[in-house]
């Protein structure tokens, strides 16, 4: 009977002790423990997340770097290509200009030569005419020393002019 | 002769236990009383045969002294303070004055047999005859179980406050030492007891109670398995202790019961009206169920722990029963008894954990049930 009859004394002491232990542990043990565990779990979760993010970022960064490198290469290639084009264009232009210039110079030279030639020819013509006239004057001067012959010549020349 | 041998065996057993548990004999000696009994008493006792049932019951019930061993007439026990409330008068003295129930002191006597076995009764002026007409004084003594309760409570506070401080100091570092042993179990209480029963939303509020109940039961179950002081008191196998624990669960459940919980008890929706009126059959059933839950909690823990102790003590008794018949038989049986005793102790270690688990799990489930929202209440009423 004693086994299954709860004693008032033990009930009393149990009520007091258990309430006390519940209060004391609740305040000084379970609160910091649960808080600590929660905090640690949170921090671990956060650390894992951060690590994951860092990993992702690293991958992105790596991809970005590669992209950057590729872009730089492309740009360099483009620049080189452009430069080559520009160079060729400049060269072509220069060549064209040179050709033109040389052609112009040649033309000028030719024109000059022609001009000079014409001038020389004209000059020659003039000189020949002068010389001819002089020669003619001299010839004619000698011929026309007698009257008769003067007349004859004049008539002959007139006839010739009419024919022309 | 047989009695002497029996006592020698018992002494050896206790000494081995002392040696194993490392309890210093000298420490307890100072607080103990040795009592020389009268010659006539001795002779009477020598003739008395070994009573296994009485021995077992004596070991599992509460006592006013902490008995450690008896060798012939030498009793090694710690006397505990007696506190009585007699007709509004507080009386207090050492239980050593009772001389293990053989003498009366200040008009009180500790009964060793009969209806009031283990209780303190009043005696007449002559100091011998029991005053049958007087009411029993209210006994608030610091008994074996109460002392064990105090020890366990202090131990709990010491262990968990020191751990709590560690969490306070460096919450983000990995657990160390005792902290790393206890944290998995604390997490077990949270993840496998509180959250399944209460849900993620509500569990935090009940964690202090669930953890305290769990560790209180677990620690006391373990301490009950230690055969010598400061263990050995069958605290969780005492119905008063389990009653208070169940009472806490009941009170917390009732205070947290929401409207739908109480509606389901008093006027359960979806039940035909003739079950509630004129005879409130369903409410009665529900109220009985309300009381049954903590009652079952109380009985389960009490019965499990007591049964474990009885079986263990039964195996030990076998040695003395056979030893009474034949010395050789006693020694022979001791081999098996100890083997089974060890096996039972290991099983009890498991039971110690399981009972702590079951008690806190059911508490958490009851709290969860009390706070559950019944979204389908209206559905019930329209159905019928």
Main attributes of the structure:
heterodimer; A: 164 residues; mainly alpha; 0% strand; B: 384 residues; 2 domains; three-stranded antiparallel β-sheet; two-stranded antiparallel sheet; 7 strands; globular; disordered C terminus
Description:
Chain A is mainly alpha-helical. Chain A is 93% helix and 0% strand. Chain A is rod-shaped and about 200 Å long. The N and C termini of chain A lie far apart (181 Å). Chain B has 384 residues and is mostly helical. Chain B folds into two domains: 81-141, no CATH class; 145-383, no CATH class. Helices cover 63% and strands 9% of the residues of chain B. Chain B has eleven helices and seven strands. Chain B has helices spanning 2-21, 25-31, 39-47, 52-60, 144-169, 178-225, 239-256, 259-266, 281-325, 327-371, 377-383; strands at residues 65-71, 74-79, 81-86, 89-94, 108-110, 120-122, 138-139. In chain B, the strands form three sheets. In chain B, strands 4-3-7 form a three-stranded antiparallel β-sheet, with no helix packed on it. A two-stranded antiparallel ribbon of chain B has the order 1-2. The radius of gyration of chain B is 26 Å and the shape is globular. The termini of chain B are far apart. Chain A binds chain B through residues 1-15, 17-18, 20-22, 24-26, 28-37, 39-40, 43, and chain B through 57, 60-62, 83, 115, 117-119, 138-143, 145-146, 149-150, 153, 156-157, 160-161, 163-168, 171-172, 183, 186-187, 190, 204, 207-209, 211-212, 216, 238-241, 243-245, 248, 306.
Ordered list of secondary-structure elements with their pairings:
The complex is a heterodimer of chains A (164) and B (384).
Chain A: H1 8-143, H2 147-163
Chain B: H1 2-21, H2 25-31, H3 39-47, H4 52-60, E1 65-71, E2 74-79, E3 81-86, E4 89-94, E5 108-110, E6 120-122, E7 138-139, H5 144-169, H6 178-225, H7 239-256, H8 259-266, H9 281-325, H10 327-371, H11 377-383
Helix pairs in contact in B: 4-9, 5-6, 6-10, 7-9, 7-10, 9-10
């Amino acid at each position: 009977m004693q086994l299954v009859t709860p004693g008032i004394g033990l009930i009393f002491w149990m009520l007091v002790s258990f309430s006390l232990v519940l209060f004391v542990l609740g305040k000084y043990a379970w609160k910091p423990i649960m808080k600590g565990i929660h905090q640690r779990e949170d921090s671990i979760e956060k650390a894992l997340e951060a690590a994951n993010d860092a990993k992702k970022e690293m991958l992105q960064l790596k991809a970005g770097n590669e992209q950057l490198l590729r872009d730089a290469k492309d740009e360099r290639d483009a620049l080189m290509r452009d430069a080559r084009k520009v160079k060729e264009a400049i060269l072509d232009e220069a060549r064209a200009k040179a050709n033109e210039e040389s052609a112009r110079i040649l033309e000028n030279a030719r024109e000059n030569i022609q001009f000079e030639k014409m001038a020389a020819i004209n000059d020659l013509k003039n000189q020949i005419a002068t010389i001819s006239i002089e020669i003619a004057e001299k010839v004619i001067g000698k011929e026309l020393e007698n009257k008769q012959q003067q007349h004859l010549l004049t008539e002959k020349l007139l006839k010739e002019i009419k024919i022309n | 002769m047989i009695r002497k041998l029996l006592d020698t065996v018992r002494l050896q057993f206790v000494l081995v236990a002392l040696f194993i548990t490392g309890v210093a004999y000298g420490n307890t000696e100072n607080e103990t009383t040795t009592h020389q009994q009268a010659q006539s008493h001795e002779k009477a006792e020598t003739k008395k045969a070994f009573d296994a049932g009485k021995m077992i019951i004596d070991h599992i019930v509460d006592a006013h002294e902490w008995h450690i061993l008896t060798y012939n007439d030498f009793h090694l026990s710690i006397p505990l303070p007696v506190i009585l409330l007699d007709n509004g008068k507080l009386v207090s003295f050492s239980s050593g004055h009772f001389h293990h129930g053989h003498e009366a002191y200040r008009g009180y006597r500790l009964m060793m047999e009969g209806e009031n076995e283990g209780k303190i009764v009043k005696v007449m002026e002559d100091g011998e005859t029991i005053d049958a007409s007087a009411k029993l004084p209210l006994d608030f003594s610091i008994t074996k179980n109460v002392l064990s309760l105090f020890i366990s409570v202090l131990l709990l506070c010491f262990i968990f406050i020191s751990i709590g401080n560690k969490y306070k100091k460096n919450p983000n570092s990995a657990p160390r030492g005792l902290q790393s042993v206890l944290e998995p179990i604390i997490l077990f209480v949270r993840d496998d007891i509180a959250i399944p029963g209460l849900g993620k939303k509500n569990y935090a509020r009940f964690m202090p109670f669930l953890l305290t109940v769990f560790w209180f039961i677990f620690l006391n179950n373990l301490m009950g398995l230690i055969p010598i002081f400061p263990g050995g008191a069958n605290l969780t196998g005492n119905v008063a202790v389990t009653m208070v624990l169940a009472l806490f669960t009941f009170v917390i459940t009732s205070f947290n019961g929401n409207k739908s919980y109480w509606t389901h008890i008093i006027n359960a929706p979806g039940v035909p009206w003739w079950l509630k009126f004129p005879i409130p059959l369903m409410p009665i059933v529900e109220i009985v169920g309300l009381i049954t839950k903590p009652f079952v909690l109380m009985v389960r823990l009490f019965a499990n722990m007591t049964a474990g102790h009885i079986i263990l003590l039964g195996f030990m008794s076998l040695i003395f029963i056979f030893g009474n018949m034949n010395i050789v038989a006693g020694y022979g049986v001791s081999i098996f008894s100890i083997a089974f005793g060890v096996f039972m102790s290991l099983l009890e270690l498991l039971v110690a954990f399981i009972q702590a688990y079951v008690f806190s799990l059911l508490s958490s489930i009851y709290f969860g049930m009390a706070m559950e929202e019944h979204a389908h209440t209206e559905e019930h009423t329209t159905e019928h």
